């Protein structure tokens, strides 16, 4: 059985009299521990899909099963628990708290999670042992994104959702971040989903789901390329 099974998911927003169909019947499956890229042009529905997978938005119709649980039928309380415990988020702009150190940013996230890893251990995994006591402003963009990844991973989530995680980084720094995400998928058996409009990043994925106009245009599993063989 697939780890994530999305069936015929639809999401529409009503803006005044107009109905916008952000997702218009999306089907896909994802296995545990896969590194998945969801690819699509601007407005395709990627963020909408990520918000639904993260339990932050509701479906209009269809169903999503994650780890044998139908998440779109969850009550608000269990959904809150799902968001806190099972899902980690990484955003394009890191979203770190500026007046807390790297370590404190990670610690803060672990406080609301019962299965949390030790913040110092996770900062070591992302290669920032010696920068733990720095504030975000004292770190480079790539380092800040690694803190944000540590913060997401410290919760010990089953699913890591990343929205354009390399969007604000240069190619080499972006590659370091992607390599880290790939390692986490492999070594921690964490299912990692990256959404991006950058086609090159898709070459690193085990599975590529291409979304166009709120529909799955294609879904392929593939042998991922080595990170040193790609550039953008
Ligand atoms: N809260 C909302 N209210 C109304 N319309 C929305 C809302 N959220 C998204 N949309 C619309 O749904 C469609 C899909 O948007 P979405 O943000 O998911 O696309 P995207 O693929 O993430 O695009 P981008 O790469 O530009 O972020 C767009 O037409 C957008 O305007």
Automatic annotation (TrEMBL):
<keyword id="KW-0067">ATP-binding</keyword>
<dbReference type="GO" id="GO:0022857">
    <property type="term" value="F:transmembrane transporter activity"/>
</dbReference>
<keyword id="KW-0547">Nucleotide-binding</keyword>
<dbReference type="InterPro" id="IPR027417">
    <property type="entry name" value="P-loop_NTPase"/>
</dbReference>
<protein>
    <submittedName>
        <fullName>ABC transporter, ATP-binding protein</fullName>
    </submittedName>
</protein>
<dbReference type="GO" id="GO:0005524">
    <property type="term" value="F:ATP binding"/>
</dbReference>
<dbReference type="GO" id="GO:0098796">
    <property type="term" value="C:membrane protein complex"/>
</dbReference>
<dbReference type="InterPro" id="IPR017911">
    <property type="entry name" value="MacB-like_ATP-bd"/>
</dbReference>
<dbReference type="Pfam" id="PF00005">
    <property type="entry name" value="ABC_tran"/>
</dbReference>
<dbReference type="InterPro" id="IPR017871">
    <property type="entry name" value="ABC_transporter-like_CS"/>
</dbReference>
<dbReference type="InterPro" id="IPR003593">
    <property type="entry name" value="AAA+_ATPase"/>
</dbReference>
<keyword id="KW-0813">Transport</keyword>
<dbReference type="GO" id="GO:0016887">
    <property type="term" value="F:ATP hydrolysis activity"/>
</dbReference>
<dbReference type="InterPro" id="IPR003439">
    <property type="entry name" value="ABC_transporter-like_ATP-bd"/>
</dbReference>
<comment type="similarity">
    <text>Belongs to the ABC transporter superfamily.</text>
</comment>
<feature type="domain" description="ABC transporter">
    <location>
        <begin position="4"/>
        <end position="230"/>
    </location>
</feature>
